[in-house]
Structure to design on (129 residues):
């Protein structure tokens, strides 16, 4: 048997693999009765600060165009932004994508934080145009 340490999404697991040799190619292998349970994941890191949300949502919604991870937030609540100005950077498929203001206005709320994983269509921010 060989032991390996595997990391999946930042969580480490110890895995033991049995070498079968000739019997596997002859089709005579019998699976063990009960597999070992995976170890419990490590404790989660300290909670992140809540996203900055000021007052009510704005009338212009900015949503994630794709699933990804928030790398940086360039605008802050209350800041005036021009159409096309970068609000935040999202990483998707190893590429950095700029999320820009769809129109000029004032940032009313930011609904995510750096490091958050977001799904496509998730609210990221809102503007008052």
């Amino acid at each position: 048997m060989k032991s390996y340490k595997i990391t999946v999404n930042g969580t480490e697991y110890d895995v033991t693999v049995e070498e079968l040799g000739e019997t596997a190619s002859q089709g005579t292998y019998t699976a063990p009765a009960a597999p070992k349970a995976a170890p419990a994941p490590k404790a989660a890191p300290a909670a992140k600060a809540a996203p900055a949300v000021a007052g009510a949502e704005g009338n212009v919604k900015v949503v994630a165009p794709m699933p990804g991870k928030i790398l940086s937030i360039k605008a802050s609540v209350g800041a005036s932004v021009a159409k096309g100005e970068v609000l935040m950077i999202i990483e998707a498929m190893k590429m950095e994508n700029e999320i820009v203001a769809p129109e000029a206005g004032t940032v009313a709320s930011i609904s995510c934080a750096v490091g958050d994983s977001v799904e496509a269509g998730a609210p990221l921010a809102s503007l008052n145009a």
Q: What stands out?
A: The radius of gyration is 23 Å. DSSP finds one helix and ten strands in the chain. The first strand starts at residue 2 and ends at 8.
